[in-house]
Structures are given as C-alpha cells and as structure tokens.
Design a protein that fits this description.
The protein is α+β, with helices and mostly antiparallel strands. The protein has one domain. It is built from two helices and nine strands; from the N terminus they run βαββββββββα. Strands 1-6-8-9-5-4-3 form a seven-stranded antiparallel β-sheet. The protein has a two-stranded antiparallel ribbon with strand order 2-7.
Length: 138
C-alpha cells in the first residue's frame, strides 16, 4: 500500500518524499515507460506515484514519475476523496497497476477509512495532461 499526498500545496514531508523519489527516477524512468502488460496497456508501479488530484468523488489523477499522469475512475462515488489531504493506493497481486481491478483507493472518511474500488485506469496523452486546468494537475 502506498500513501499519496496532493501536489499543491506541497507540505514539507511530501516535498522530502518527492525529492527522495526523484533521486531514483533516472534509473527507473526507462523501465517505467517500457512497462506494458500482455494486452499492451500502460502500467505503473505504485512506488512511482508522487502526487494526486481529485476533481470530484469519482475521478483521480495520479502523477507517476516525472511526466506521466494517469486517470483512475471509481466504480462508485468515493465520498471525501476530492477533499482528502492524503490517500493510499493498494495494489492487488503485486506492485504494478495496469487496469481498474488492480487497485483500491483508501480515503479518509468521517466514520473511518473508505475503500474505493477503481473501475478503469489509463495514462493520459501529453495533450490531455496539458489540457488539465492548473489546479487539477497532480
């Protein structure tokens, strides 16, 4: 399970995490972009997630590595996900996420942590990532 923090505003702990993660990025970057499953879907390692943004309670954008942004769609609304200061992502059967059923988002809630099943995962194209409003980019 990997804990996530929103990109803006950066908190000191998140900045240190991103700095430590950045030190590993050059070695992992080539493997990260080449990672694909047998169906040709782009995959990522949960350890490479460095930030998130949730524009609503069913959509989550993840910053993976230096330049990739992935979009996750939830099966059902994940209340308070769009207000959370931190989230966790849990991968099933390993540390790689290629499709929705591979991941569960754990969001804080008023009655305790909420487990939200991911329906779909896809990597945004450079144009789609650039088109995200500045406040929605992870």
């Amino acid at each position: 399970m990997t804990s996530l923090s929103p990109s803006p505003p950066w908190k000191p702990a998140a900045a240190l995490f991103a700095l430590a993660l950045g030190a590993c990025a050059p070695a992992l970057e080539a493997a990260e972009h080449a990672e694909r499953d047998s169906a040709g879907r782009a995959c990522f390692f949960t350890r490479n997630v460095s930030g998130f943004s949730a524009p609503d309670d069913q959509t989550l954008y993840l910053r993976v590595g230096v330049r990739d942004i992935y979009e996750m769609q939830m099966f059902a609304p994940c209340p308070e996900m769009d207000w959370a200061q931190s989230l966790a992502i849990q991968s099933r059967g390993g540390s790689t996420i290629c499709q929705g059923m591979d991941a569960t988002i754990i969001a804080p809630g008023t009655l305790g942590p909420q487990r939200c099943q991911v329906r779909a995962v896809r990597r945004l194209t450079e144009a789609e990532a650039a088109a995200l409003p500045p406040g929605r980019r992870p």
